[in-house]
UniProtKB/TrEMBL annotation:
Gene3D superfamilies: MFS general substrate transporter like domains (1.20.1250.20). Residues 17-471 form the Major facilitator superfamily (MFS) profile domain. This is Solute carrier family 2 facilitated glucose. It comes from the Eukaryota.
Length: 790
């Protein structure tokens, strides 16, 4: 048993954990799950749809109005999370939760009578208030539980927060079954019942003591800190605890008083902040809240029978609770790091299977095949939930609070929770819209491979030479004697990249019209590989000329990509989400820059010999794209308008768009071609002479000039859901595998000290008494190896 008699557990600790989880954590889960089932299974979202459309005239689509109920909750949650750090530091952990109970009660009182009052505004305002409550609870409840618990069971106590969230979700699912409160008039009652736990907590929480760490470190009240510690810990020595806090305070006093802005400026906080935010982003972009909020819609999309959906949703909630209970004991046995890493692999595999089964189910007519795929999809949603409940569910809230010392802990936790809520907003807003937007698996593949193998490379090659600047200058000055200064030669590396990029951009139009959009990008992948092959061995070959030639080639590649990738993405995307898919190009650019920055950190590849490896790695995405892109269709518009291939255009359109009518699309293209025939054949010189093109050309050029002269590059020098979630989970998993240390049974100071000098860790568990994880690519290791070889 985790909470055995020799673990230091006291009755006051049990009461504190229960009241915190029941009055705060439970309410989060309850309010997250309460809006999932209304209207199911007979007609999706019907109850909320009927209610909002009855009283809001000329409202947007019902799906949008329903998504807005979740969206305002999440936006308010983000605001609450960002505010939680300040509240926790000024009022204390317990008092913040006590005040927050009032928000929960107020939100329930506002929402409850919305049907009786015939006012959808009450529903939306109430969800704003309960969202703000949830954001504060997310930011403070885990922090409070972590600080009041004995070290040996800190993981188990911290996991109770996530357990209570899952129980709250399950209770919400049960109360909104058709046989309980899921009716046109009673569903607001289920929403209003969220006030009951908060009211009970308001009476019991004042009996519980404040966090001993807060009392000693923030309030300088040693007497009260000792009293609170003894009430909640019967095993550990209070003098040793106070001694640790004194040492931590002495260390903190040697630095200026902590301010929130230092989260972004202090070097020793960079890696902990990065890990904390990535953990929270991974948790949300794994898709869990899309499953919690839209599980009924997902199961219907997957082909499950309508009369089985609501019971399957309740089963998901109950299964989530059971597996989370198991994780409570595993946290102390296996550690945080292991539970974050290995269940994520199972989660990724389940997302991959769901991508396949949901896609096939959506393309099959109703029948045994679709029913079988629906059952398989439901099974793997349970597998997904189980993997999440063991790892990504309980671990983030606990491990994030363990990564920091006392001073920055509340602020850092608030920041990471705010990022989590914003990630949650992205999922909840995008899922229902894109799920109904005609997205096909081929469109997802095409967008991904285009952004991964083309757009992302532009960002990567833009940022990859930023941080290694000093090493590049040393390399050039070593082999280029008597020339201009090292600064000029380094600037020349960027200048020739930009000049070649301009040439590539001017050439891209001709190539896209002659070869086609897809084939131009395919040829361009070869250019990217050539540039990487030329630049990569420059240090080994002792030839700065290879670096310059390679940058010319990659610059030319970047120019073609910027001219064609956006054009291709725009032409293949359904009209309703053309803007979102077009924005994926810029998103990939920024991700490429970020990856380049990470790979060229001092602790990774920013050394005198390894920085060209980072430059050469740009060939990897291009090589993958060369193999995958031929399976993607050409732009239907290009096939019809330029090649006159109606049959090919129809095939490509159907592969990429499952919603819009192909005959209507072809008719639009025919009308466009007839209008074009009435004009003389277009020549490039007409860009400068045709009157009707003057304003569009001027605007297009000004937009591009504004983008660049804003300084950005100077600063930088359906199956949809499951596949996108999979990409984020795998990407974050790699980062955590490399950089996230184990925190089990370690002091906060010990963890913070290790992260202050970030290094790649090998997956070895260690306690605070054991030696830190093996370090790779650190300056000291490099120096020792050099000395040994000498």
């Amino acid at each position: 048993m985790v909470f055995c008699s020799d673990s230091g557990v006291t009755p006051v600790l049990i009461l504190t954990v229960f009241v915190t989880c029941f009055g705060s954590s439970f309410v989060i889960g309850y309010n997250l799950g309460i809006m999932n089932l209304p209207g199911e299974p007979c007609n999706p979202l019907q109850v909320v749809k009927n209610f909002t459309s009855k009283y809001i005239k000329d409202a947007p689509s019902p799906a949008f109005m329903y998504a807005l109920v979740s969206a305002v909750f999440v936006v308010a949650g983000a605001i609450g999370s960002f505010s939680s750090g300040i509240l926790a530091e000024s009022l204390g952990r317990r008092n913040t939760l006590l005040m927050n109970n009032a928000f929960s009660i107020a939100g329930a009182i506002l929402t409850g009578p919305c049907v009786v009052a015939e006012s959808p505004a009450l529903l939306y305002v109430g969800r704003v208030v309960t969202g703000f409550n949830a954001g504060i609870s997310m930011g403070v409840a885990s922090l409070y539980l972590t600080e009041v618990s004995p070290r040996d069971i800190r993981g188990a106590v911290g996991a109770c927060h996530q357990l209570a969230v899952t129980i709250g979700i399950t209770v919400a699912y049960i109360l909104t079954l058709d046989q309980v409160l899921n009716t046109e008039t009673l569903w607001p009652l289920a929403v209003g019942l969220g006030a009951v736990p908060a009211a009970i907590s308001m009476f019991l929480l004042p009996i519980c003591p404040e966090s001993p760490r807060f009392l000693f470190t923030n309030k300088k009240n040693e007497y009260e800190a000792r009293k609170a510690f003894v009430k909640m810990n019967s095993k550990e020595d209070v003098d040793m605890f106070i001694g640790e806090l004194r040492e931590e305070m002495e260390t903190a006093q040697q630095q200026p008083k902590f301010k929130f802005s230092q989260i972004f400026t202090r070097r020793d906080l960079r890696m902990p902040i990065l890990l904390a935010c990535l953990i929270q982003v991974q948790q949300q972009l794994s898709g869990i809240n899309a499953v919690i909020t839209y599980s009924s819609t997902m199961l219907r999309t997957a082909g499950l029978a309508n009369d089985k959906i609501q019971y399957c949703v309740v089963g998901i909630g109950a299964f989530n609770v059971v597996v989370t209970v198991i994780s409570v004991s595993l946290l102390e046995r296996t550690g945080r790091r292991q539970l974050l890493l290995w269940p994520a692999i199972v989660l990724s595999l389940s997302l991959l299977v769901l991508t396949i089964t949901v896609t096939l189910a959506s393309q099959l007519p109703d029948g045994n095949g679709a029913k079988t795929l629906g059952i398989v999809s439901a099974v793997f949603i349970f597998v997904y939930i189980g993997a999440f409940a063991i790892g990504l569910g309980p671990v983030p809230g606990l491990i994030v609070s363990e990564l920091f010392r006392q001073e920055p802990r509340a602020a850092a936790y608030a920041l990471s929770q705010g990022i989590q809520w914003l990630s949650n907003l992205l999922v909840l807003i995008s899922y229902p819209s894109i799920d109904n937007a005609g997205v096909t698996p081929m469109l997802v593949l095409t967008v991904f491979i285009t952004t991964f193998g083309s757009s992302g490379l532009v960002g990567y090659n833009t940022g990859v030479l930023n941080l290694p600047g000093d090493n590049i200058k040393n390399f050039i000055s070593r082999f280029v004697q008597g020339g201009p200064g090292a600064d000029f030669m380094y600037a020349l590396v960027s200048a020739i990249f930009v000049v070649a990029g301009a040439i590539g951009s001017f050439s891209s139009g001709v190539m896209a019209e002659k070869l086609g959009r897809r084939n131009t990008l395919l040829m361009n992948n070869a250019i990217a590989i050539i540039g990487a092959v030329i630049s990569g061995p420059c240090v080994f070959a002792r030839s700065p000329a290879l670096l310059y030639v390679g940058r010319v080639v990659t610059g030319f590649n970047a120019g073609i990509t910027l001219g064609v990738a956006s054009l291709y993405l725009t032409e293949i995307s359904p009209r309703d989400i053309r803007g979102a898919i077009g924005a994926c190009h810029q998103l990939a650019l920024t991700l490429g820059i970020l990856i380049a920055y990470i790979l060229t950190l001092d602790v990774v590849l920013n050394t005198e010999t390894l920085w060209p490896v980072a430059v050469g790695l740009s060939g990897v995405p291009a090589a993958i794209s060369m193999f995958v892109l031929p399976f993607c269709p050409e732009s239907p518009r290009f096939l019809f308008m330029n090649k006159g291939n109606e049959h090919g255009a129809r095939k490509a359109f159907v592969k990429l768009n499952s919603k819009e009518d192909v005959d209507m699309f072809i008719e639009e293209l025919k009308e466009e071609m007839e209008a074009a025939k009435r004009r003389s054949k277009f020549k490039c010189g007409q860009i400068f002479t045709a009157k009707d093109l003057r304003m569009p050309v001027l605007l297009a050029c000004l937009i591009q000039v504004q983008q660049q002269l804003s300084g950005i590059n100077a600063a930088a020098i359906g199956g949809y859901s499951f596949l996108i979630f999979l990409v984020f989970v795998v990407a974050c998993w790699i980062v955590f595998f490399l950089y996230l240390p184990e925190t089990k049974n370690r002091t906060f100071d010990d963890v913070a000290e290790e992260l202050a000098t970030p290094h790649i860790v090998v997956g070895k568990n260690h306690s605070h008494k054991e030696k830190s994880s093996m370090q790779l690519f650190t300056r000291q290791n490099f120096a020792d190896e050099t000395q040994f070889r000498a």
